[in-house]
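Morning, I've got a small favour to ask if you have a moment. I owe you a coffee for this, so here goes:

…
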Amino acid sequence: MGDKMTKWNLFLVFFCLVFTLAPVFSTAQLFHKKVNRYDENGKRIGLWVHYWDEEEKIPLSKNHFKDDRETGVCKNYHNNGKLRLKFRYYKNRIRVKYYDESRHIEQKGWAIMDFTEKDLHYYWHGKWKFYDQDRKLIRKTSFKDGVLIEENFMNQEEIQ
């Protein structure tokens, strides 16, 4: 019986060590993730992170790049580290959401980013919604190539 207890104790110790140390090793790998890299042609690639502070504890932005262009999900932060702006890139459009410092949605809509060899042009394109501090819809707009083509303010009856 003593031999069985010893094996059982060893198993429990091993089990506890594995689940105790696993998060440490996985976290350590996160810190060694390669960021702010260029490819062989000098173009940004992969995850790029910038910080508000020198200690690199409060993020300013986290953006993903491919061929020197933002792609996927990109985020910008308030100086308190809370999410401020989120871009989700699709083929030819961008889903944009702005947040206040309490992470409540302020506005959301669609945009387009046109790239030329000399510059890029970002503009709102499509439907946008705007919210008040109580997270109630207060305005709807539509844009075409950055030009406002329709705007509707919500009154209390339309909101409810």
